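Case study 2.
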Amino acid sequence: MYKIVLIGAGNVAWHLASHLEQAGHRIVAVYSRHLVNAKVLGQQLYEAKATDQLNFTTTEADLFLLCVSDNALPSVVAALQLPSQATLAHTSGTQPLQLLATNLANSPNIGVFYPLQTFTKGKTINFKQVPFCIESTNTTTLDLLGDIATSLSKEVYVLDTAQRQTLHLAAVMACNFTNHLFAIAHQLLQDKDLDFELLFPLINETVQKAMQMPPKDAQTGPAKRGDTQTIAKHLALLEQYPTYKKVYEVLTESVFEEVRYMN
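Prediction:
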């Protein structure tokens, strides 16, 4: 069992908090710049102190875990006050490990504890299948992060900053942009009084194929076939949606390039 301070009370912290406690760890404090958010999360836990202050110099914890947004991370790190030789890790997919050294210049105990998953409050996640990507400057901290990660998941990987940043980029492509395309499709159908559920079997089969074969081998559609007549019809339908039309054109050209490369 490890004592952990969660710095942040957003989606990542909400999911990590309950699963860490279920795994036998103890959340001793939760920070949010809005105290009410820290209190709401703290009330879901066994015995966690809620605070809106970043002075933890008298707090006993094995790990101080930063669960704040990438934009907020540098300023939060700079304002943190921690005990001597504290262990500090962040959960970011993009921020470098050495960002934490600006605060712990006198301590080598810095690391990364990055769960590769999309988190939404109220949506249950099977943590046993979530890949955790860990990194540290020393074996002691890496072992601690590894212990905590393996208590949550069967999928734990040691990645350096460059690998993690590339993984995060790929995740944005595969998750965030794909979901945005779902949102576009939903809007197009809604505008014609069609149900988005009509696409569920297609979406499911597409995802299943992507996990069973190289996605480029599973590519179908008018761009893959070079069907310029259908593409022209689609573009005409998108005239009233200029932003969506640009997205269609860019993705179509990208598929064209992939086909040319494969041939």
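The CA atoms of residues 23 and 151 lie 6 Å apart.
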